[in-house]
């Protein structure tokens, strides 16, 4: 369970400013953009249906209505397509953290963490079925890991982004001086992943409403981090 938590629990590849940037900066005509979009749509559907491990570029191309050679004109391989699906097709949490890190505005820490928790649960609920099949085939996981390194992507970006946000709040005095941003990020992401995982395992929505879950999680986390907005009520 720990490897899956590390992968899916930290693997929102949209979760830093860098990760939110496109893998390729290109100016495309509508026909090219349409082909790329069809490929992503086909890949997302196949990954949801049979899992990432069993999907091939040949199957993706067939479902997208193009040749495999045409697919490779747009993407370097299945791993890049997987990254793009995560970035462009699944519920996004990374850009939210990036915005809050840059400037949270007048939002208090409690509200920011609750919002992040809601988005994280939705991301994990969408991504877990896609990525889980990799862990059934160790050799494929090793190849996938190597390909992601070549793409300069990795599963730690969400964790690092949230850690950076909490570190910023600590420097701003909105968390206790002794707060551990990395531990706080791990606790929040772990709780969100568990909720999403249990929902899939039992094939039913958890009894507790998502917003109530996020609110309670943020309050409890802030109690441990020494910030206003814990059980004593939202602070500024």
From TrEMBL:
Top-level taxon: Bacteria
GO molecular function term, any single one: DNA-binding transcription factor activity
Residue span(s) of domain HTH tetR-type: 33-93
UniProt KW keywords: DNA-binding, Transcription, Transcription regulation
Signal peptide limits: none
DNA-binding region per UniProt: 56-75
InterPro entries on file: Homeodomain-like_sf, HTH-type_TetR-like_transc_reg, HTH_TetR, Tet_transcr_reg_TetR-rel_C_sf
PROSITE patterns recorded: HTH_TETR_2
Classification via PANTHER family: HTH-TYPE TRANSCRIPTIONAL REGULATOR RUTR, MYCOFACTOCIN BIOSYNTHESIS TRANSCRIPTIONAL REGULATOR MFTR-RELATED
Stated name of the protein: HTH tetR-type domain-containing protein
Organism: Streptomyces marincola
């Amino acid at each position: 369970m720990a490897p899956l938590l590390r992968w899916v629990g930290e693997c929102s590849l949209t979760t830093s400013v860098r990760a939110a940037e496109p893998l390729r900066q290109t100016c495309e005509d509508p026909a090219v953009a349409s082909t790329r979009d069809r490929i992503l749509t086909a890949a997302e559907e196949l990954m949801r249906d049979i899992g990432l491990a069993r999907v091939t570029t040949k199957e993706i191309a067939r479902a997208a209505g193009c040749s495999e050679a045409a697919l490779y004109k747009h993407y370097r391989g299945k791993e890049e397509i997987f990254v793009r699906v995560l970035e462009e097709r699944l519920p996004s949490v990374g850009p939210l953290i990036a915005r809050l890190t840059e400037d949270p505005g007048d939002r208090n820490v409690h509200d920011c963490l609750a919002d992040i928790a809601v988005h994280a649960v939705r991301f994990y609920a969408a991504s877990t079925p896609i990525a889980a099949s990799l862990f059934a085939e160790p050799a494929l996981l090793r190849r996938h890991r190597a390909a992601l390194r070549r793409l300069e992507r990795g599963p730690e970006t969400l964790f690092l982004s949230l850690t950076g946000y909490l570190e910023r709040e600590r420097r701003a005095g909105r968390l206790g001086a002794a707060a551990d941003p990395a531990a706080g990020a791990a606790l929040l992401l772990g709780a969100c992943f568990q909720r999403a995982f249990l929902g899939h395992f039992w094939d039913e929505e958890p009894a507790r409403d998502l917003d109530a879950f996020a609110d309670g999680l943020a309050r409890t986390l802030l109690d441990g981090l020494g910030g206003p907005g814990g059980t004593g009520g939202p602070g500024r």
